[in-house]
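Pilot study result, target chain (266 residues):
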Amino acid sequence: MPTSAMNPHSRLVENATAAVDAYLLRVLPNRPPEAQAEDHSSVETLHCLFSDLLHFCDHHGLDFDAALGWARTSYADDLAMEQTFTNGDEVQPRHSATWRGIVVDVHTTDQGQVLHTVRIPGERDRRLIPVEALETEAPFGPIETRNSPVLTAQEAEGHLEELSLLIRRTEHEGRLPAQPLYADQRKLVDALADWSRSSPASILQLLGSQIAAALDEERLQTPEATKLASTAFPNDIASGLADPRSTESESQGSGSSAPDGRPRSR
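Predicted structure:
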């Protein structure tokens, strides 16, 4: 990598160059200038240097492999400082992939540190993460649904909210939603939970609050059409994952009926 003002690691390259120059001067003190330039960029030079460093570590009781592994980690951290993500990118922690999330904001502090706000499906609070602590995650999808494949976690969240709204509107009108709606809902919940390292329960709990807010907003415009739907959320969101047809006998036994006399789905 050439040393230049455009290279953010110029100082580190210069440090290594000084070390290699000193090594060459030590082992090949009488080489002509043109040969020194060739030696400077030779893989053989690094081979000799690393070989001598192995002997150096043996002599002083040092673990060369551990030192090299540590150096690789530092090098990766340096490179990570150069990366950046944009809104909608799917990321995870670099050193411990305990969660996966979606970048929703990027900003730089007064000290020049680049911070990313990350939303994790199923978590109410967002996380503020330095760019060097993140790495790109494998794509979320595709997840096949009745209409089209869902490719990203952000698409899955949006599609899941639309499905849940449609299911609740249909149910509270006294009609049974189409079975494929429930199948898609369950599929997206499970996919988001598996991808984010969250759980279906936490996905549903947060979804319930979002649906309740959406229905409340609709109620301001059409009060009678959404009044019943909004009062049921978020407490009954989990029950929407089961196709009412499979539990019809249970619903009939409970004695709960929709306004038109048919069993109410739960």
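One observation from the pilot: Confidence is low (pLDDT under 50) at residues 1-5, 247-266. A full batch analysis is planned for the follow-on phase.
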